[in-house]
Amino acid sequence: xxxxxxxxxxxxxxxxxxxxxxxxxxxxxxxxxxxxxxxxxxxxxxxxxxxxxxxxxxxxxxxxxxxxxxxxxxxxxxxxxxxxxxxxxxxxxxxxxxxxxxxxxxxxxxxx
Amino acid sequence: xxxxxxxxxxxxxxxxxxxxxxxxxxxxxxxxxxxxxxxxxxxxxxxxxxxxxxxxxxxxxxxxxxxxxxxxxxxxxxxxxxxxxxxxxxxxxxxxxxxxxxxxxxxxxxxxx
Lengths: 112, 113
What we know:
The complex is a heterodimer of chains A (112) and B (113). Chain A has 112 residues and is mainly beta. In chain A, 0% of the residues lie in helices and 54% in strands. In chain A, strand 7 and strand 8 (74-78) form a beta hairpin. The relative contact order of chain A is 0.33. Chain B is an all-beta fold. Chains A and B meet through strand 5, strand 9 and strand 10 of A and strand 5, strand 6 and strand 11 of B.
């Protein structure tokens, strides 16, 4: 099976702009989670979607939003970008909570 | 809320030796799962090993094994015959029910040739 794919892999945006990141899970996986990873804050959970419904949400401002489509593909959107949003954004999919999450290669977002 | 603690920010081991990474977690639930993830310099997070809390037997995956002490809420990872490719950041994680996966702060493992 193909792994989790994320597009784009690298992105440079300017403060105030918005960005949309995409994640395609492993075939058959219905859960998709998003994480932000920075050197200072470590790995922080953004949200999890399961069958198109948001199942869990982290402590991020409303500028961060996501959605999941009927084919389980997911997108996350960040509006009004700030310098502090520069990070590696990781997407992970799973078939079952006990089987673990499988991660994509990440999207590195740089905000200038 | 779940908490996962990794008290060793950095560790090093000689190639071919054995190293153990520590992890403790805190939950009063009985239905939970524990995981170890590896993140090499490429930044790709890789699932190394998983453990169901209801299983007494420690999980093993090739050179990787865990020591699961349920009463002590301890979940350490043992890497045998360490190889240069094992150099990475290792994260311990737990999941209770359908709650989010909670990660520890990680342990950076260096392999000394």
